[in-house]
Amino acid sequence: MLEKSKELKRIFNQRRTYRNFIEADIDIEIIKNCLLAASSAPSGANQQGYSFVVVKSDEMKEKIRAISEENEATFYKNEKNKNWHDDLKKLKTNFQKPFLTEASYLICIFYHNKLANGNKIYYPLHGVGLASGMLLSALNQVGLNTITYTPSGMNFMKELLDRESYEIPYLIVACGIKDDSYELPNIKRKTLSELIDIY
What we know:
This protein has 8 helices and 5 strands. By secondary structure, the protein is an alpha+beta fold. The protein has one domain (17-182): 3-Layer(aba) Sandwich (NADH Oxidase). The model has no long low-confidence stretch (mean pLDDT 93).
């Protein structure tokens, strides 16, 4: 177990967020399998209060990108968000989101604020967060690269993707094969002592 944990630490520390992708034809069965792996995450009363929409259509990706970039341009112009802007500078981001059309797939994740029959969902944000984390891990394990994206004003996803009233937009995971010309930002992760207290 100790050796396995060391190997997992090495593998997971290699995971990075990529903002540019190359054109690649990736078997949809790989995505389906990763989504089923993600759905094994724990959830309150095993309700699995979330849903996934896999977007592979170039036309739909273009629509998502166009609306996202329009909303992001407003966000970046808003001086009230200055602290946020400053925090993002080290990641070299701006309102342009090319990964939304470059990635082979966009996995749009929704959490549910109630069941289809109207009954209560227990801890929906906990469940969708755990499933999303497991999805990223699964995609990484099969050799795909990802970026997580929460569009500014992302309620447009409900209408665009024809979702039910109880489905709330949570996250977009763009996945595919990284563009090696993309320059990763120089970031550091927290050390063990910064993250963990042991009693």
